[in-house]
């Protein structure tokens, strides 16, 4: 067991290296430094479509479960915003022109597997990883994309939440995690699943970097 019984603290401590590796992946580093193209950003939004399609289907499947309902706030739902962003970035017919990278296919499959098991803690692990990331570093990504690609709200609606005080919301979410009635074994399972979620996210950035077009030789 970790020294602290706080799930949020344990996740922060044990996922820190994974979090750093994720941010340091070439694709994400280029995006955050403003060195990426609009097509690079659009490719990321496309992958979000497949991630959140699985995650929000899992949320619907676990709806009503007392543990999951403690963190299942409707204001977090992202699919309508993702669809609006893709329509703005890609135009009509965008659904026929998108596909997931291999790591996103695996990522979505894992989320669906956890949901099919009815494992609330496992779904919460992915829920926490994605949504609190969107409410934290995602807000910086939004500002960089708006500045670099001259976007208003259209194109970055994914990062815009109907939440007045984001910091208070995140603190409340973490407090709910700490009140979960999990024994030591379940606590460890959830932390491990969260670390797996971080790895999936790193793998997505690696795949996106690998899929970038090779510059033509002069």
Automatic annotation (TrEMBL):
SUPFAM superfamilies: Heme oxygenase-like. It comes from the Bacteria. Gene3D superfamilies: Heme oxygenase-like. Heme b binds at residues 12, 19, 128, 174. GO terms for biological process: heme catabolic process; heme oxidation; response to oxidative stress. Keywords: Heme, Iron, Metal-binding. CDD domains: HemeO. It holds the Pfam family Heme_oxygenase. GO terms for molecular function: heme binding; heme oxygenase (decyclizing) activity; metal ion binding. This is Biliverdin-producing heme oxygenase. The lineage of its organism: Bacteria, Bacillati, Actinomycetota, Actinomycetes, Micrococcales.
């Amino acid at each position: 067991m970790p020294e602290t019984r706080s799930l949020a603290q344990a996740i922060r401590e044990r996922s820190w290296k994974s979090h750093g590796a994720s941010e340091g992946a070439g694709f994400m580093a280029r995006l955050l430094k403003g060195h990426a193209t609009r097509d690079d950003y659009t490719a990321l939004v496309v992958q979000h479509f497949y991630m959140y399609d699985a995650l929000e289907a899992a949320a619907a499947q676990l709806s009503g479960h007392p543990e999951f309902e403690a963190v299942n706030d409707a204001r977090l739902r992202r699919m309508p915003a993702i669809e609006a962003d893709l329509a703005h970035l890609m135009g009509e017919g965008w659904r026929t022109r998108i596909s997931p990278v291999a790591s996103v296919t695996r990522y979505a499959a894992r989320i669906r597997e956890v949901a099919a098991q009815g494992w609330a803690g496992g779904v919460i692990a992915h829920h926490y990883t994605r949504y609190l990331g969107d409410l934290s570093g995602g807000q910086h990504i939004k500002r960089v994309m708006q500045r670099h690609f001259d976007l208003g709200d259209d194109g970055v609606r994914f990062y815009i939440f109907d939440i007045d005080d984001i910091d208070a919301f995140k603190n409340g979410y973490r407090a709910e995690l700490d009140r979960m009635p999990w024994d030591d074994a379940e606590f460890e399972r959830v932390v491990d699943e969260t670390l797996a979620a971080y790895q999936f996210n790193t793998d997505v950035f690696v795949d996106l970097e690998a899929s970038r077009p090779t510059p033509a030789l002069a």
